[in-house]
Design brief:
Blueprint (H helix, E strand, L loop, with lengths): L7 H5 L4 H12 L30 E9 L4 H19 L33 E6 L1 H6 L30 E7 L2 H14 L4 E12 L28 H7 L14 E10 L1 H5 L3 H8 L23 E2 L2 E2 L6 H5 L10 E2 L2 E7 L5 E11 L2 H15 L6 E11 L12 H4 L1
Antiparallel strand pairs: 1-3, 1-4, 2-3, 4-9, 5-10, 5-11, 6-7, 8-10, 9-10
Helix pairs in contact: 3-5
Length: 409
């Protein structure tokens, strides 16, 4: 084990928070790329929030919260405390000094303790605000016009208990207990100011966000996100992901997060023939190649025709989701598989928790989803039952900068 390997147990014994953080930063070789260092620590501060272009980790715990207070000062104080706790947890430490084992054994521990002894596990915590945040705090004039509830798309069966939210926190890590611990402790600290609206656990990332990652598979068994934007494409990220001068000051350099809970009717899909599955998706199931190619990353020839018409069918998923079909619009996908038990009727409640980061949801995501909902052959096997949109501010500067500071100043 490296002498610089960081765990919550080891850092708990260091003399002070400042010394521990400085040591962790120097050891981890923090940078602005969002990539984890050798010890699994991802830089918390930088130009953009971590957890967007960071190489996608294997596990997710996503939570949407509602404000229960309209006191702007109380909310600002909570965001300050959340930032301090989040920064500690992403370096493998407990949420606060005193942690899970306080000196006063009759006091409630400051940290719930289930991550004691576990490494940082590439934990990232990404913060966003929803439309209601502004109305409840009396700052509606600061809400960007693009931040509004997503429209209802054809076929949507949205559950209000799985949609919306005033705030969100996305925790991604390579250890599920590390991600759950992070969300659990931030939720706990928000008592009296926020409450959970809904949450989602995810496993097995369904997109790669770095060229160093292999393309994963979704629960239909197909490689997912082959043409996803990558961290190594800064020009494309600037064009499609990061909010520019068109956004308010507090959002420039940030992004918009689209979240959709998509139940997949896997039992019906599993009874479909392989040829039908490949025609619906537009790709070969084994290699992941488009039906006009032989290798996964071959460009799909959407103009190719055969005896029965287009080789890649007009209603195939990859055609309708392609940049060519959507005016060149692209997005950074960061979704996860989920299995949340069964529905009581012999079917798994399983599917894709779709997460995407875009510069403009109204010109990038909405038109594409309308096209998919109307014409995609895959829609027969999908049910969208959760939906939310959040604005994700840019990253934090060094020093005392904290979540929401520029927004609530």
């Amino acid at each position: 084990m490296s002498p610089w390997h960081l765990t919550r147990r080891r850092l708990f014994g260091l003399a002070g928070a400042g010394a521990a953080l400085a040591g962790a930063g120097a050891a981890a070789g923090y940078g602005l790329s969002g990539a984890p260092a050798a010890d699994g620590v991802v830089a918390f501060r930088g130009e953009h929030q971590a957890g967007i272009v960071t190489p996608a980790q294997d596990r997710l715990h996503f939570v949407a919260l509602d404000l229960t207070s309209t006191d702007r000062a109380a909310v600002a104080d909570l965001l300050r405390r959340w930032t301090a706790a989040a920064e500690r947890m992403t370096t493998g430490r407990e949420t606060a000094e005193g942690g899970a084992i306080p000196a006063n054994r009759y006091a409630a521990p400051a940290d719930t303790g289930e991550a004691l002894g576990l490494p940082a596990a590439s934990l990232t915590l990404t913060f966003g605000v929803g439309p209601g945040f502004f109305d409840k705090l009396g700052i509606a004039d600061r809400r960007p016009p693009r931040l509004a509830a997503l429209p209802r798309f054809q076929g949507d069966r949205l559950d209000p208990a799985r949609s919306g939210g005033d705030l969100c926190i996305q925790a991604c890590a390579d250890d599920p207990q590390v991600a759950v611990h992070a969300v659990r402790n931030l939720v706990r600290d928000g008592f009296g100011v926020t409450e959970v609206r809904w949450s989602q656990l995810g496993f097995g990332r369904t997109s790669s966000t770095s060229t160093g990652q292999a393309t994963p598979r979704n629960l239909f068994g197909f490689k997912d996100g082959t043409n996803n934007l990558k961290a190594e494409e800064p020009d494309l990220l600037a064009q499609h992901v990061w909010v520019g001068d068109e956004g308010p000051d507090w959002l420039r350099g940030g992004s918009y997060l689209v979240a959709r809970r998509i139940r997949m009717h896997i039992e019906t899909w599993d009874r479909s023939g392989l040829d039908e599955q490949e025609q619906i998706v537009g790709r070969d199931k084994g290699e992941g190649a488009p039906l006009t190619g032989t290798a996964e990353f071959d460009l799909a020839d959407l103009a190719a025709t055969g005896p029965s018409g287009p080789v890649i069918p007009d209603d195939s998923h990859i055609r309708l989701a392609s940049a060519e079909a959507n005016g060149g619009a692209r997005m950074l996908r960061r979704g996860y598989n989920f299995v949340d038990g069964s529905d009581g009727r012999g079917h798994l409640d399983a599917g894709l928790f779709f997460v995407a980061f875009v510069r403009d949801p109204l010109t990038q995501y909405v038109p594409m989803q309308r096209r998919l909902a109307r014409s995609d052959a895959l829609s027969e096997y999908l049910e969208h039952n959760g939906s939310a949109l959040f604005a994700v501010p840019p990253g934090l500067a060094e020093g005392d900068d904290h979540w929401g500071r520029a927004l609530l100043a």
